[in-house]
Specification:
heterodimer, A: 113 residues, mainly beta, six-stranded mixed sheet, five-stranded antiparallel sheet, 54% strand, globular, B: 114 residues, seven-stranded mixed sheet, 11 strands
Chain lengths: 113, 114
């Protein structure tokens, strides 16, 4: 089955700097890659997603890139703000598995003011 | 996006008892729902895929006789943790499959087994 690895596990940046979180997946059939932000005790919140027919997607300060050949995708947050501090999860899914989500292990992002 | 609720939001039960968690779709008919478990400071782990009117599909390593899932209607899926033990204490989150790709998560249920 699908396996998703995520790095780093923790990331501390200065406010205004950029943050990059990377994920790799194992199943080449995966074709949908969402990123979630989760605050303590809350549900995951979708912040951006990308499908396998696209190499890059951007939404204001957040962007995701996908390299299908290498089977990895990355989340880029620019101009970080303290409210960006949270745990971020990548995930992968595919049609043959009813688009169930297989999550990465998570990255705890701390933005220092 | 769709609105998904869970009940209860938190529950404390004694070891050996069973507890039922409800996941409701408030404004969307969901043929497919998913149940996840999240231990403290860990990721979400998929437990099972629940399809309306049929048996749930459990992930490898998840005991189907311990975690009973029922999806009897398009708006309600339930997870029953039978004979709960302290190691079952966790954050249980359901999600509803929306369109082709999207999932809409419930707020989660924190289960503590004493």
């Amino acid at each position: 089955g699908e396996n998703v690895e995520q790095h780093p596990s923790t990331l501390s940046v200065q406010e205004g700097d950029s943050a990059v979180i990377k994920c790799t997946y194992s199943d080449s059939a995966s074709n949908y890659f969402p990123w979630y932000k989760q605050e303590l005790g809350k549900r995951p919140q979708l912040i951006i997603d990308i499908r396998s027919n696209v190499g890059e997607k951007k939404d204001q300060r957040i962007a995701v890139t996908l390299n299908k050949t290498a089977k990895h995708f990355s989340l880029h947050i620019t101009e970080t703000q303290p409210e960006d501090s949270a745990v971020y999860f990548c995930a992968a899914s595919q049609r043959d598995s009813s688009y169930k989500l297989i999550f990465g292990s998570g990255t705890r992002l701390l933005v220092r003011p | 996006g769709a609105v998904v609720s869970q009940h209860p939001s938190w529950v404390i039960c004694k070891s050996g008892t069973s507890v039922k968690i409800e996941c409701r779709s408030l404004d969307f008919q969901a043929t497919t729902m998913f149940w996840y478990r999240q231990f403290p400071k860990q990721s979400l782990m998929l437990m099972a895929t629940s399809n309306e009117g049929s048996k749930a599909t459990y992930e490898q390593g998840v005991e189907k006789d311990k975690f009973l899932i029922n999806h009897a209607s398009l708006t309600l899926s339930t997870l029953t943790v039978t004979s709960a033990h302290p190691e079952d204490s966790s954050f249980y989150i359901c999600s509803q499959k929306g369109g082709l790709y999207e999932q809409y998560f419930g707020p989660g249920t924190r289960l503590t087994v004493t």
